[in-house]
């Protein structure tokens, strides 16, 4: 049964539109610019940042890379952000998370101009999303919504069960599903009867960061399963938060890991950067 949702293919389709938008902006004399800031040596973060740089190059977006040492102080990072906020070549600023422990993440995210906050993590953008008037939507949840749209899933009146309540994925994806008129349940580590909640989901969105924690036999037959987890098991293997092989037998449609939500995250970052550049051109 081919019930796989191919994130790579959907991402590629959207990236072609983005590249066309970039060409049109360049023809008007504007090159979209993204500043990518990495602090420290976290191996996964280094991989994600180099993927972002490569994706920018392929789309024709100017990427301004800042790789800072593990011992960078909060004041130094805030000073760089201030400089990037004022740099007219830069439409988007991305600070790769997590940050080293001497740096207060909230202070850093709040220092980014909301107009350049292509990650959508600034409280201003969180508030705009919560009040139904988004400026920038966080990339992973936005990617999840685009995948559902491309798969033809209409969320109106559906039971959506989100497992995970992070600021990066769980909470924003729940708000986005609510905006599409779904009935949304957010589950977390203290939820009682998690299997019972998951079993009610017409759509299950897993974002807990625990390898294969959501068992295949919890899934309602025919449900759509979106697995946001990217968990490294052993040296090379990547698995999601859902027990994939068993869940695939019951799901109507399911995302793989890798090749599911992951490629959409970077695609939506490019998308947000280009939207920001369009606003710059329009003087907004
Ligand atoms: N400032 C941010 N930091 C982090 C974010 C974010 O959106 N903004 N999200 C994650 C990591 N992340 C992007 O930064 C990210 C995670 C996964 C992928 C991806 O394409 N995964 C592939 C597998 C890649 C691999 O081999 O490791 C897949 O799932 O197919 C892209 C981006 C935390 N930090």
Automatic annotation (TrEMBL):
Its EC number is 1.5.1.5, 3.5.4.9. NADP(+) binds at residues 164-166, 230. CDD domains: NAD_bind_m-THF_DH_Cyclohyd. GO terms for biological process: L-histidine biosynthetic process; methionine biosynthetic process; purine nucleotide biosynthetic process; tetrahydrofolate interconversion. Keywords: Amino-acid biosynthesis, Histidine biosynthesis, Hydrolase, Methionine biosynthesis, Multifunctional enzyme, NADP, One-carbon metabolism, Oxidoreductase, Purine biosynthesis. InterPro entries: Aminoacid_DH-like_N_sf (IPR046346), NAD(P)-bd_dom_sf (IPR036291), THF_DH/CycHdrlase (IPR000672), THF_DH/CycHdrlase_cat_dom (IPR020630), THF_DH/CycHdrlase_CS (IPR020867), THF_DH/CycHdrlase_NAD-bd_dom (IPR020631). Residues 5-119 form the Tetrahydrofolate dehydrogenase/cyclohydrolase catalytic domain. It comes from the Bacteria. Residues 138-280 form the Tetrahydrofolate dehydrogenase/cyclohydrolase NAD(P)-binding domain. PROSITE patterns: THF_DHG_CYH_1 (PS00766), THF_DHG_CYH_2 (PS00767). Pathway: One-carbon metabolism; tetrahydrofolate interconversion. SUPFAM superfamilies: Aminoacid dehydrogenase-like, N-terminal domain, NAD(P)-binding Rossmann-fold domains. It catalyses: (6R)-5,10-methenyltetrahydrofolate + H2O = (6R)-10-formyltetrahydrofolate + H(+); (6R)-5,10-methylene-5,6,7,8-tetrahydrofolate + NADP(+) = (6R)-5,10-methenyltetrahydrofolate + NADPH. One of its GO terms (molecular function) is methenyltetrahydrofolate cyclohydrolase activity. GO terms for cellular component: cytosol. Catalyzes the oxidation of 5,10-methylenetetrahydrofolate to 5,10-methenyltetrahydrofolate and then the hydrolysis of 5,10-methenyltetrahydrofolate to 10-formyltetrahydrofolate. Homodimer. Belongs to the tetrahydrofolate dehydrogenase/cyclohydrolase family. This is Bifunctional protein FolD. It comes from Trichloromonas acetexigens. The lineage of its organism: Bacteria, Pseudomonadati, Thermodesulfobacteriota, Desulfuromonadia, Desulfuromonadales.
